[in-house]
Specification:
- There is one protein chain.
- This protein is of the alpha+beta class.
- Among the domains are: 69 residues, no CATH class; 40 residues, no CATH class; 69 residues; 68 residues, no CATH class; 89 residues, no CATH class.
- Helix content is 27%, strand content 17%.
- Strands 10, 11, 12, 13, 14 and 18 form a 6-stranded antiparallel β-sheet that branches. A 4-stranded parallel β-sheet has the order 3-2-4-5, with no helix packed on it.
- Helix 2 crosses helix 9, helix 6 crosses helix 7 and helix 18 packs across helix 19.
- The radius of gyration is 33 Å and the shape is globular.
- The protein starts with a helix and ends with a helix.
Length: 904
């Protein structure tokens, strides 16, 4: 009876609002990358806030209408209205000290000054030019003169490299000598120590830890049990210098770890859309152990680095949050509304030491799909567990409060203040103040909801407490005491009965997978844990394994394999084998001419980028060829076994067998005239000589050095001396040239003929720079999907939609080498529906289910809005496609004839 009374006593209804539906505010329109977050909200029954300004930060004033704010960009804290304790905001004020690369290294140096270098030596040395030039020169000479390590005798630069990160260009290059310093003394460029990486199957990799800081006072830090493990696409070079491909040492687009031969034995489950699979962090630890590196020491170091850099900034975070509270005139000073999930990206040195490379404040939650698997479930799980842990509470929900025991009960049950797990005692004399008790209750219930997050601070042994800047608060000490009580009093010695922590007031508190009975969750079948967050018997849909292209229907042959033994049918192995062999030969011979199943050949191993293609094949009922050499071009000889060949790289047409009219191969012989940048420009010049420049003037002028140096000089002077356009205050308007160097990725601007001598032996390309039309201040490009279905007769189709890619940064007022590459080169990009000037044309944002609005039609509407004839634009762009293809039709016909003759 007392237990029932206690459960009722600790739950009370908040009278301030009757709203029991949980609501989130997402004050941003662009959200295509947040699908796992939106799915988690939907699964937890959390609705999005609607109404005027709901997609902007102006709505943040209306705090009674939402319970949680989630933003991908930096939070605009100044717009926040009055916060109650239940409110949650997903960014910590002051996070710049971790997520800004310059700040985090300066923070490390400050902490080295306080605690010594031994504990804070996990970010590679960095030097900013020109102010750190003397310190860098000394460090450069010290490493250069260091005795060569015997383990790398074949690499004279082993452990002596430096990376130059230029402000004017994306990417990096290697700094080879102090004589280069003069070129960077006015650049604000950064030079960083180059770490010699541990390799997996010859590939460099990085590891990203998902770190949740759920409270600043008391400080609580969790790390998700799994991690992001990204493998460079290309193998690491034997000697690393500026000639190496960037994809061999910089992780951008990447390979999944389960495709690495050295790791495959450690994966018992491959990640998919149904299961999270084997933990990548666990796999990495197993691999480290296999190469002689202590995995537990590695985990202790990498977790410790995370904790120390956060703990060392705790006072800064507290001051930043207090400043926000003062600025927004919050009704109470109690900290705790703000939390953060970071991704800490580490590189692992060949010694096994982890080095922190960067901290991401808003890690990408969009799942990455590979043909062999996906991290969809991991990202879905980590965001679901995070939201469950921080708890989203509506104002009308039952709230958990600490019970108040009377004096007699306190004396009877609460004499031992070390038994902090005894929640009902927390309000007794000599235990905690009311504020401390309520704050501890929030931490204890959060800890019970942690899911697959591991608490890494605080720890029972207080290993990292000395690094907490500003020292421990009363709230820190209370939570440490709570954790320690579980060590002092093991579960077997604790009398939980009615003192069991009370964790729920309704089904919502039980993850919607259990009922709340007297303050405790009674889980549904298939779930367990204090709050029913752990699935134990989740049923999965049966996934059919790929079937071979040739399958013998042997159902009618089964009786021949059986004989009666003791009244039962038993298999006769030898008879069965011989009979089936003969039957298979007969049936396959017939099948070659009567196969009804459609079959495609994909002669490449790597296919993670082809998920939409493979999905289309499945939906069309087209099976993959699984015969001998199925993933190589050798199988192309067996044309009776497949109907279509699809390859991503150039087709090896010479390997093709005999083709019937029904066969389809997805590359045209001779396509190099279109897809090679130099060939297509030469093609335009040839077509200009035949048809005139008016019809073939849609590729910017290009000049290859040194052979076209004289023609370029004439063109350069002509553009330089042309009358300046009145509409522009830019002296270089329509006079710029781009230099595309063969020895480097990216581009730079060619400013004068005095530079040309430096490129006369380079085979570099100089191209006319086109002045772009801007959308919301951003440069963009448009990609048309063009299908050539036949060469004779010539049939060309263009898909009704197109890809429109917007540069990540706004176009500069004056474009030169100081401009950020992301402002004028489309690589990583922003979607068009995120642009203010286009949003009126998108009544619905494209998603995984549908895209009713054509990006091409949106561009046409925008053109009409700014006074450009959209129909003329469509005629010109479609016409350019048709003319360049039609002008090469004879070349394509001859190329196919040559191939047919070659392959007989």
């Amino acid at each position: 009876m007392r237990f029932v009374y206690l459960a009722v006593a600790v739950f009370a209804l908040d009278d301030r609002s009757s709203r029991q539906t949980k609501v989130f505010l997402l004050p941003e329109k662009a959200r295509h990358h947040l699908q796992p977050l939106l799915d988690a909200f939907n699964g937890m029954g959390v609705q999005e806030m609607h109404g005027p300004d709901a997609l902007t930060w102006k709505a943040a004033k209306k705090t009674q209408e939402f319970d949680l704010v989630w933003s991908y960009e930096y939070s605009q804290f100044q717009h926040l209205g009055p916060l109650e304790r239940r409110h949650r905001i997903n960014h910590l004020p002051g996070s710049y000290v971790l997520v800004s690369k310059g700040h985090v290294y300066e923070t490390l140096l400050e902490l080295q000054g306080i605690h010594g270098k031994y504990d804070f030596n996990f970010i590679p040395k960095q030097f900013r030019l020109p102010q750190d030039v003397d310190e860098f020169s000394a460090a450069f000479r010290e490493r250069k003169n260091r005795a060569q390590e015997t383990k790398a005798d074949d690499d004279p630069d082993y452990n002596k490299r430096w990376l130059l990160k230029q402000q004017s260009h994306r990417g990096v290059q290697f700094f080879s000598g102090l004589d280069q310093l003069g070129d960077h003394m006015h650049s604000n460029d950064m030079i960083a120590q180059c770490i010699e990486p541990l390799l997996i199957s010859g590939h460099k990799f990085d590891i990203g830890l998902y770190v949740a800081v759920t409270s600043i006072d008391p400080l609580r830090i969790y790390i998700y049990h799994n991690a992001l493990l990204r493998m460079c696409k290309l193998k690491y070079p034997k000697h690393l210098d500026n000639t190496a491909d960037l994809e061999s040492y910089v992780v951008d687009d990447y390979l999944p770890p389960w495709e690495m031969p050295d790791l495959q034995e450690f994966y018992t489950e491959i990640p998919s859309e149904e299961i999270e699979g084997t933990s990548h962090f666990k796999v990495l630890k197993q691999y480290l152990e296999s190469v002689g590196i202590d995995p537990e020491k590695f985990q202790s170091e990498i977790y410790g680095d995370v904790v120390k850099i956060i703990a060392g900034n705790r006072e800064h975070f507290m001051d930043s949050e207090q400043a926000v509270r003062r600025q927004t005139k919050q009704p109470h000073e109690q900290l705790g509304n703000f939390f953060e999930m970071y991704r800490f990206d580490f590189m692992v040195e060949d010694t096994g030491k982890p080095w922190l490379m960067e901290v991401n404040q808003s890690p990408n939650l969009a799942p990455k799909y590979f043909n062999s698997g996906t991290d969809f479930t991991m990202k879905s799980s980590l965001i679901h567990d995070l939201l469950h842990m921080v708890s989203i509470t509506a104002p009308g929900e039952l709230s958990v409060y600490l019970p108040q025991l009377n004096a007699a009960e306190c004396n009877d049950r609460c004499s031992d203040v070390k038994q902090v797990w005894e929640m009902p005692c927390w309000r007794c004399p000599g235990w905690f103040t009311e504020n401390e008790g309520n704050t501890l209750l929030e931490g204890a219930t959060e800890y019970a909801r942690r899911g697959k997050y591991n608490l890494v601070y605080p720890t029972v042994d207080k290993q990292y407490s000395r690094f907490v800047s500003g020292g421990l608060t009363a709230h820190d000490e209370a939570f440490e005491r709570y954790l320690a009580s579980f060590e002092v009093y093991p579960a077997a010695d604790r009398k939980l009965s009615h003192h069991e922590p009370l964790l729920c007031g309704n089904r919502e508190h039980c993850s919607r997978h259990g009922d709340c009975v007297n303050g405790a969750c009674v889980c549904d079948i298939g779930y367990e844990g204090k709050t029913c967050y752990i699935p134990t018997g989740k049923k999965r849909e049966k996934v059919d394994k790929p079937k071979p292209a040739f399958k013998v229907d042997d159902t009618n042959l089964q009786p021949a394999n059986l004989r009666q033994v003791d009244g039962q049918e038993k298999v006769q192995p030898q008879i069965a084998a011989y009979f089936m062999l003969g039957a298979s030969i007969l049936l396959v011979a017939v099948y070659l001419h009567s196969r009804a199943a459609k079959v495609f050949l994909l002669p490449e191993t790597f296919r993670h980028h082809l998920s939409p293609l493979l999905r289309a094949f499945r939906e069309l009922g087209i099976q993959e060829y699984y015969g001998e050499d199925a993933m190589s071009w050798k199988a192309a000889k067996k044309t009776q076994d497949f109907d279509l060949v699809w390859s991503w790289e150039y087709s090896k047409h010479q390997q093709l067998g005999l083709l019937e009219r029904r066969h389809k191969v997805n590359h045209l012989p001779g396509s190099y005239v279109l897809v090679s940048k130099s060939h297509i420009y030469e093609t335009q010049l040839q077509l200009q000589s035949i048809h005139g420049e008016e019809d073939f003037n849609f590729i910017p002028k290009q000049y290859l050095l040194p052979k076209e140096a004289e023609e370029f000089k004439v063109a350069f002077e002509e553009r330089k001396n042309q009358v300046q356009a009145v509409k522009c205050d830019d002296p270089d308007y329509n006079r710029r040239w781009l230099l595309k160097q063969q020895s480097h990725r990216g581009v730079q601007f060619f400013s004068g003929l005095d530079e040309i001598d430096a490129h006369m032996n380079s085979n570099d390309m100089i191209a006319q720079c086109i002045e772009p039309l801007l959308i919301s201040g951003h440069k963009f490009d448009i990609g048309l999907y063009v299908a050539i279905m036949s060469i004779d007769p010539l049939r060309i189709y263009i898909y009704h939609n197109s890809v429109v890619r917007i540069c990540k940064l706004q176009y500069p007022n004056h474009l030169d080498d100081t401009a950020d590459l992301e402002s004028y080169v489309v690589d990583d990009f922003i979607p068009p529906w995120a642009m203010p000037d286009l949003q009126e044309f998108y009544p619905e944002i494209p998603n995984e289910q549908k895209q009713d609005i054509s990006n091409f039609q949106v561009i046409k509407k925008y053109l009409a809005k700014v006074g450009i004839d959209p129909e003329k634009f469509q005629r010109e762009i479609y016409g350019a496609v048709v003319k360049i293809i039609a002008g090469n039709r004879e070349h394509f016909v001859n190329s196919e004839k040559t191939l047919r003759h070659q392959t007989k």
